[in-house]
Design goal:
single chain, 337 residues, alpha+beta, Ribosomal Protein S5, domain 2, Alpha-Beta Plaits, 2 domains, 4-stranded antiparallel β-sheet, 24% strand
């Protein structure tokens, strides 16, 4: 990456028209999305369930203009090389196709958390980009259309569009028009505390996209698919009924299935770090006595959910391990600012 200014020397403030800004939150899956029936437009095999994380935010300004000869992305003040913006390109191309716009789009994005450490920065990034760029292009998409648009950039971004707890319907159509996320409960439905524990700040050694592809060659792939086919229904019931024991069982089983599957790839994919395991062991022990559970996505960082009365104990466990953390709540969906 190289520093600003962008190649034309212009900043987005030079072209005030066709401009909009949006924010979106990262989301963490309770029932995971893992494996694609279509790699080009990110269509999953199974439905997934997630919650938005209030404290993990991407803010993006999109500006369409005639001055740049190609689309561009600037993250936290650094220009991303053109060859690395393929995900966003799919979103922007879809907007051009819908609107007939011929202009290029420059996106300026700010994350308040580390990129590519398994904390779903591509989800919040693509969701904020889809909302800002479509609005700036004059489109007024409904929630499911926006969720589908965000999905083109990164599958999990579909779930950062709706509010609170979300379900991404895998859909069955080839064109993906029925593959989008909806809210199953607002953020205040269940006042749980969320701890995002930073076990590692080093980028992942493999992207989720590549890891998913490799997992389909594991000897346990079919077993994984069979075992997870009802995971979204089970997780949704637990959330709707605010049944913490059921949520714990669903989340722990789904997390371990994914990580066990990854370990059975050749060569093995190990997302966990020693500190992740240490913290998981603490949480598994604690979960026998209080309402606390945890999950990891495709990285070493651990995300913990607990009931209001438990958070001081959970916090002490994390502090005892000397790990940095963010304490937060279930977050809202993407919105214009
Ligand atoms: C999830 N993950 O449900 C699962 C669990 C990681 C582990 O969705 O290839 O970055 O861009 O569609 O969305 C991460 O996958 O992958 C992810 P692409 P994405 O949250």
């Amino acid at each position: 990456m190289r520093p600003l200014p962008f190649q034309s020397g212009k900043t987005v403030t030079d072209t005030p028209n066709l401009k909009a800004s949006a924010i979106a939150h990262a989301n963490i899956a309770v029932a995971k999305y893992w494996g694609k029936r279509n790699n080009e437009i990110n269509l999953p095999y199974t439905d997934s369930i997630a919650f938005n994380v209030d404290a993990l935010v991407t803010e993006t300004t999109a500006c369409w203009n005639d001055d740049d000869f190609r689309d561009g992305l600037v993250i936290n003040g650094w220009e991303v090389p053109a060859q690395n913006i393929g995900r966003l390109q799919r979103i922007l191309d879809a907007i051009r196709q819908k609107t007939g716009l011929t202009q290029r789009c420059i996106l300026h994005s700010k994350n308040n958390f580390n990129l590519a450490t398994g904390l779903a920065s591509s989800a919040s990034g693509c969701a904020a980009a889809a909302l800002a760029a479509s609005k700036a292009a004059g489109l007024d998409l409904n929630e499911s259309e926006l969720s589908s648009l965000a999905r083109l950039g990164s599958g999990s971004a579909a779930r950062s569009i709706p509010d609170g707890w979300t379900r991404w319907h895998a859909g069955t159509r080839e064109d993906g028009s029925d593959s989008y996320a909806v809210s199953i409960a607002p953020p205040n439905h269940w006042p749980l505390h969320v701890f995002v524990v930073q076990v590692s700040d080093t980028p992942k050694s493999i992207s989720s996209t590549d890891a998913m592809r490799k997992c389909q060659d594991s000897p346990f792939w079919q077993t994984y698919l069979n075992e997870t086919k009802d995971a979204a229904d089970i997780a949704q019931n637990a959330i709707v009924q605010r049944d913490f024991a059921a949520l714990t069982a669903a989340m722990h089983h789904n997390t371990m299935l994914l990580h066990a599957l990854a370990m059975t790839c050749q060569p093995p994919i190990l997302f966990l770090a020693p500190k992740s395991l240490e913290l998981i062991q603490h949480i598994l022990r604690s979960s026998q006595a209080m309402q606390v559970c945890c999950t990891l996505d495709a990285g070493a960082n651990v995300v913990i959910l607990c009931e209001e009365v438990c958070w001081p104990f959970v916090k002490n466990d994390i502090i005892a391990l000397g790990l940095p953390y963010i304490q937060t709540h279930i977050g809202h969906g993407a919105r214009l600012i």
